[in-house]
Specification:
Elements lengths: L6 E5 L2 E7 L6 E6 L4 E3 L1 E4 L2 E7 L6 E6 L3 E3 L15 E2 L23 E4 L1 H4 L5 H5 L2 H7 L3 E4 L3 E2 L12 E5 L6 H13 L3 E6 L11 H4 L4 E2 L9 E2 L6 H18 L4 E4 L13 H13 L5 E4 L21 E3 L1 H12 L13 H10 L7 E2 L4 E2 L12 E4 L3 H5 L7 H5 L1 H13 L3 E5 L19 H15 L8 H6 L6 H6 L6 H4 L1 H16 L11 E7 L2 E6 L7 E6 L4 E3 L14 E7 L19 E3 L3 E8 L8
Parallel strand pairs: 10-11, 10-23, 11-14, 14-17, 17-18, 18-19, 19-22, 22-23
Antiparallel strand pairs: 1-2, 2-6, 3-4, 3-7, 5-6, 7-8, 7-9, 12-13, 15-16, 20-21, 24-25, 25-26, 26-30, 27-29, 28-30
Helix pairs in contact: 6-7, 8-9, 12-17
Length: 623
């Protein structure tokens, strides 16, 4: 098996250590608790390496850097005592994989499910999360997306302040726990996507500067601290540190893909872009398995999805904030802060389904500049749609879930749009349960100064919403560093039974998405749509030999249409519309279904979505 040059390599004679520390003249390995010291040889170029004979897996060590002190390994595979403690030698070949029949994952047909390992179960461990995977598969999920696992300080954290990029966070389990999780997912038929952060590192436990000042740069402004140096002096080794990290996760842990956080903050003026190289290298590391590479890109630049040969980054998909923002405004009516450029009307939702992004170069008033780039032939599966995710739930005062903000009927209707649209849907943990539990921002920092700064920062961020800038609201912002904030965000697994109607809704919509021959095509080229009212619209799926489908969504009041001067609502010749699904069905918590179509006229219930199939007289339209 190919090994990275840096870090630890177990050999018959012991363990070979290697590190890049151009800032230092002398580097040694110091073992704990024996305090034995093994000097490393200077190889030139800032690289130091050496053999520690008689040492094996389980040894605790740090690197001694000149007289500056002893520090954890930047390539540490495990930090059992956290980021400030010693590193542990791990044998990457000790685990016996059971997923030899697993063939990998591609974007088509995926249904993503985002989880925070610590809040997903009462235990908050990878092993406890693994026990829930068969149920997710039964629901219709195809890929689990893990929020970042890189080692972080404290007992709880979102993970976006990770500092030990190669070490799975010890609070969730050791490296073999992550391997067991991935094995269990593959056994259940689920892919695993890992969220990784390559745009910054956290402030607590980040020791990279002890090894080299070249890891970071002040040439770019970064929203969360110092930018990573991907294109300046000394950047070659820095690029390798991050690119190899991507390869490491897919090679040693068999993950099926990566979600790249905030790629708009990964600055590289060179060519090819570091993310293009990452794409090529990560796919090579996974070969022959295909993997999923998904960008979060706030600027909605489709360069992320263009082939490397055409100057792109070669990724498979990117998140579409536009769909979320338009849907959120449609459901809540609130247009504060970064929602202010959206009206939440039917036209916007239709445009998202047809075009992927709404902003493709137009002026964006919130940022006082154009936003986005033109979408051309990118497939529908390349756009990840969502109604909830970790950011968009927590970016509100009390971390309220959408049902509590907008009411169940309209959320049911919007859920039907999310799960029947051709784009790749993402659900955030508990969404399928209609959970009453919030999801808040939390980060455990024992340094009082840092904890206070994090608390102030959270209040400042929320103050961009005028309603959250009032003294009363600012006082009510939950303390991110309080354990109660973290515990309040844990899911209540019992809601699967108490909220069975919400669960049944998601299960049936995902079945339709998977089994209906027309919906499953995921083709945005083979559909069209029309606005029926500011809050109502119709989407026509053209299915050829499988007949057509018609999704009618009404987020407003009851709507009467007679006559109906909209050609998309005419059934194909020789057929008529037959009802397949309604969010008003009592089993989903609705008032009971009255079909919106009556032959001569349409009466579309408010707060509902209904799916119709073209059917010959007496034919069964069900998939």
């Amino acid at each position: 098996m190919e090994r990275a040059k840096l870090g630890t390599t177990i050999v018959p004679e012991g363990v070979r250590f290697s590190v890049w520390a151009p800032k230092r003249r002398r580097v040694s390995v110091v073992f704990e608790p024996s305090a034995a010291v093994v000097p490393l040889e200077d190889e030139g170029g800032g690289y130091f390496s050496g053999l520690a004979p008689g040492v094996g897996a389980g040894a605790l060590y740090r690197f001694r850097l000149d007289d500056a002190g002893d520090f954890p390994d930047p390539r540490s595979r495990y930090q059992p005592q956290g980021p400030h403690g010693p590193s542990l030698v791990v044998d990457p070949d000790a685990y016996r994989w059971r997923d030899t029949e697993w063939t990998g994952a591609t974007m088509a047909g995926q249904v993503l499910y985002e989880i925070h390992v610590g809040a997903f179960t009462a235990e908050g461990t990878l092993d406890a999360a693994a026990a829930e995977l068969p149920e997710l598969a039964r629901l219709g999920i195809t890929a689990v997306e893990l929020m970042p696992l890189a080692e972080f300080p404290g007992r709880f954290n979102w993970g976006y302040d990770g500092v030990g990029l190669y070490a799975p966070a010890h609070v969730y389990g050791d490296p073999e726990a992550l391997k067991r999780f991935v094995d269990a997912a593959h056994s259940a038929g689920l892919a695993v996507v890992l969220d990784v952060v390559y745009n910054h590192l956290g402030p607590d436990g980040n020791y990279l500067r002890e090894y080299s000042d070249d890891y970071f740069t002040d040439r770019y402004q970064n929203e969360w601290g110092d930018a990573i140096n991907f294109d300046g002096p000394g950047s070659e080794a820095v690029r390798e540190h991050f690119i190899e990290n991507a390869c490491y996760w897919v090679r040693e842990f068999h993950v099926d893909g990566l979600r790249l956080d905030a790629t708009q903050q990964v600055f590289d003026a060179g060519a090819p872009h570091v993310l293009a190289l990452l794409s090529l290298r990560a796919r090579a590391a996974a070969s022959p398995r295909p993997i999923l590479l998904i960008a979060e890109n706030e600027t909605q630049d489709v360069i992320a999805m263009k082939p490397v040969a055409d100057g792109g980054w070669g990724l498979d998909a990117e998140w579409s904030d536009d769909f979320h923002h338009a849907a959120r405004v449609a459901l809540t009516g609130r247009r504060e802060a970064y929602y202010s450029d959206y009206r939440g009307r039917a036209q916007e939702l239709l445009a998202c389904v047809k075009r992927g992004h709404l902003y493709q170069g137009q002026y964006y008033a919130w940022q006082k500049q154009p936003r986005g780039t033109p979408v051309t032939n990118e497939p529908a599966s390349a756009f990840v749609f969502y109604l909830q995710n970790h950011d968009q739930v927590a970016n509100h005062l009390r971390g309220d879930r959408l049902t509590s903000l907008a009411g169940a009927p309209r959320v049911r209707a919007m859920t039907a749009l999310l799960l029947l649209a051709p784009q790749t849907p993402l659900l955030f943990m508990g969404q399928e349960l209609g959970t009453s539990r919030p999801f808040l921002y939390f980060a455990d920092h024992h340094d009082d100064t840092l904890a206070e700064a994090v608390g102030r920062g959270r209040k400042t961020f929320l103050a961009q919403f005028p309603s959250y800038a009032t003294p009363e609201a600012q006082e009510a912002v939950p303390d991110p560093c309080a354990e109660s904030t973290f515990l309040a965000s844990k899911l209540d697994r019992g809601e699967r039974e108490t909220h069975e109607d919400a669960y049944a809704l998601h299960r049936e919509l995902l079945r339709l998405r998977r089994e209906d021959a027309v919906i499953a095509r995921q083709s945005r080229q083979d559909l069209d749509g029309a606005v029926l009212a500011d809050d109502a619209f119709v989407i026509r799926y053209f299915g050829g030999g499988h007949g057509d489908r018609l999704l009618v969504v009404n987020l407003g009041r009851d709507l009467d249409l007679a006559p109906v001067p909209e050609p998309l609502m005419a059934p194909p010749a020789g057929t008529d519309w037959a009802l397949l699904f309604s969010t008003d069905d009592a089993q989903y918590g609705g008032p009971g279904t009255i079909a919106a179509y009556g032959g001569a006229a349409w009466r579309i219930p408010g707060g509902s979505a209904q799916l119709f199939a073209s059917s010959t007289s007496g034919g069964d339209p069900r998939p």
